[in-house]
Specification:
Archaeosine Trna-guanine Transglycosylase, Chain: A, domain 4, Transcription Regulator spoIIAA, Rossmann fold, 3 domains, 5-stranded mixed β-sheet, binds S-adenosyl-L-homocysteine
């Protein structure tokens, strides 16, 4: 049994929580000092002591916990977790039945009714990401629940809250049978090599599935593609399979080279016919301008914040400049795929950054396509901040 304490909501936040807002913030409650041990269940009442909701205490970014239920009678126990899992799996029935896509998000935090808890599915393996120490305290219950209601080969985990001894404990293995890595998963028929036991990232960002598919099906054939901040080159692989003339992948991280070679190779593509460069994107822009290189498609998918030896990049300050650099090396009528995963601003502001770049350069453009999170990354309609992904296909001229 988990410990439960009662905490009073202040008047300002009570109606929001009652109406469905899932995040418990520091300034929504009256007496923060009552919260001591992460993972403690919290009963939230109004100032008069009337029940509003229940949830748990766990420090994560902007919040100190998540609402789990608005029914006083509902116990937060293993059966509760089982019900949420069953519902999440039911919602993704089409994904389970699709042999062309064997990796997807199975449980998306508050979007599936349990903030702080993410489960991704990789061809029979579950990868559980814990976003706070508080949610991690549900581990035993979650694993037992998965054994009861789901079929899997094995379970791995990422403790995203643990900044010190991160990702090294026992290869992140939790239960079932160990996988053999790389595990080859499919996404719309494209192969990806995945590692569940090798640090924070697995080799693919599943939230870009629809963007990769669009590039492969509609934008790649016969084109030259520049993929900046390319990581394992997932966009390049999609483009090459879609018939690109040539792809150029640029990433600062040394290991991106071997990782990108691997992703091409598991798809039977000769990586030597592609360019894979380990360098700073901002230096590459300079190089490309000097050499008067231009591309039909330029993909921009920077991290929200990055610091290299020479440059600091923060999406909300520098996206307009990044866009200008890209415009300078994109062919007339070419396409820039502008992406950001920054949760700190919405689509409208993002469009503003793009517009500013073209206006400053006195150039014309049209937005031809727009993407946000795919359906397996389920968003709680009461928590639109959860829909962090913004991708625009911008055509020059
Ligand atoms: N677009 C990728 C994900 C990008 S993750 C995909 O679809 O899979 C962000 C990447 O940016 C990381 O691999 C990081 O090494 C790289 N990066 C950060 N700053 C950079 C810089 N200044 N130049 C080049 N790459 C950079």
């Amino acid at each position: 049994m988990k410990k439960e304490i009662t905490v009073k909501l202040n008047d300002k936040s009570k109606s929001g929580i009652a109406a469905g807002y899932p995040l418990i913030t520091k300034d929504s409650i009256e007496d923060i000092s009552a919260l001591k041990e992460e993972g403690t269940l919290i009963k939230l009442t109004d100032k008069q002591g009337r029940f509003v909701a229940k949830g748990y205490y766990g420090n994560q970014n902007k919040g100190i916990g998540w609402v789990l239920s608005r029914s006083e009678a509902e116990e937060i126990d293993q059966e509760f977790i089982e019900r949420r899992l069953i519902e999440a799996m039911r919602r993704r029935r089409d994904f389970f039945n699709n042999p062309d896509t064997t990796a997807f998000r199975l449980f998306n935090g508050e979007g599936d009714g349990f903030g702080g808890l993410i489960i991704d599915y990789y061809d029979g393996y579950f990868l559980v990401s814990w976003y706070s120490e508080g949610v991690y305290s549900f581990k035993e219950q979650l694993v037992a629940a998965l054994h009861n209601v789901a079929e899997f080969k094995g379970i791995y985990e990422k403790k995203r809250f643990d900044t010190k001894g991160q990702y090294i404990e026992d290869d992140d293995f939790v239960a079932g049978e160990r996988g053999e890595f790389p595990l080859i998963v499919k996404e719309n028929g494209v192969n990806f090599a995945i590692y569940l036991n090798d640090g924070a990232m697995t080799g693919i960002f599943l939230d870009q599935r629809e963007v990769r598919q669009a590039i492969k099906e509609k934008y790649a054939k016969g084109k030259t593609i520049l993929n900046t901040f390319s990581y394992t080159g997932a966009f390049s692989v999609a483009a090459a399979i879609g018939g690109a003339d040539k792809t150029t992948s640029v990433d600062l991280a040394k290991r991106s080279n071997a990782k990108t070679i691997e992703q091409f190779s598991v798809n039977g593509i000769d990586y030597e016919s592609q360019d894979i460069l380990v360098m700073d994107v901002f230096n590459y822009f300079k190089y490309a301008k000097r050499k008067e290189l231009k591309f039909d498609v330029v993909i921009l998918d920077p991290p929200s914040f990055a610091r290299s030896k020479k440059y600091t990049f923060s999406t909300s300050k520098d996206y307009t400049n990044l866009m200008k650099e890209a415009i300078a090396i994109t062919e007339d009528r070419g396409v820039i795929v502008a992406s950001t995963n920054s949760a700190s601003f919405g689509m409208k502001k993002f469009k503003g950054f793009i517009d500013r770049a073209f206006t400053d350069l006195g150039k014309k453009y049209t937005i031809v396509e727009e993407f946000s999170l795919p359906p397996d990354f389920r968003v709680d309609p009461k928590f639109s901040e959860g829909n962090y992904l913004k991708v625009l296909f911008v055509k020059l001229g």
